[in-house]
Design brief:
By secondary structure, this protein is an alpha+beta fold. About 40% of the residues lie in helices and about 15% in strands. The chain has a two-stranded antiparallel sheet with strand order 1-2. A two-stranded antiparallel ribbon has the order 3-4. The protein starts with 14 loop residues before the first strand and ends with a helix. The relative contact order is 0.06.
Amino acid sequence: MHSLGETSKHQKTGEMWRQVNGTKSHLTDRNGVSNHLGEEVESFLSDTGPLHSIDDLTKVNPVTTATVLKCLQARYTIDVFYTNAGCSLVAVNPFQPIPSLYSHKLMRDYHAAPHLQELKPHIFAVAEETYRNVKSQIPPVNQSIIVSGESGAGKTWTSRCLMKFYATVASSPSTPQGSVDVERIEKRVLDSNPVMEAFGNACTLRNNNSSRFGKYIQLQLNRSQHLTSASIQTFLLEKTRVAYQAPQERNFHIFYQITKGATQEERLEWNLPEGSSFSWLPNPQKALEEDCFEVTREAMFHLGIDCSMQNNIFKVR
């Protein structure tokens, strides 16, 4: 006889049973899924209904890995890449440019929407919600957004979108001088991206523009909710990549940008002979859009890194 709360397990056609006070109740099969739950999963997966219309994964019933992936797949097939999961947002990388999905018009639509929950899930909805949370609190309360995912999931792109959104919606000062100041800050915020990616991103087996470091970005707003300053802290930079790269991978973008984009005069000044090859720059034949040296240099100028300082950075010693 067993007292209340104790259990005994009996094997019966691969299933587990619980016995409490002499009464048997069905638990799970060997795979950890009950027959009842398995039937629900099977029913959901075989359902030919409009799974793409489920915009929040908490509405999936039952919630299992298989049913969640089935829902995301259904939305992906109709080019819907964002899905809510309660208070979180799940983004699926489309692996293709979709300019209309991140246009200034769409930013304004989310910024001006009276009820965000009535709009489709989007990174702009998350950005606007945090912006409104700061604006509605007295005194203002700091807000944080965590962007996480495996390599190639789209973290770098999402960070870009967030910074672009805040630089856009928080740049409406009432004075002309303020407009100039905010425009300058906005430009610096956006120009920090190509610089960070040039010096901290690399081509890997899974991602042509993989961030090899973590970053913590702070955007400061004044009492009028206008952008006043920004700061970026980086950590855990993969410094070993400078000296060693896995097969088929590359070093940091900046090295390829220099060797491909430097003029003859700059090559002489930086000790980079024409036609030279470097053992620490594997796979230079790969042509990536991230190899644009002029974009990086222009962004560095806007961040206050002048020509003299750039020469010191790029010179091989």
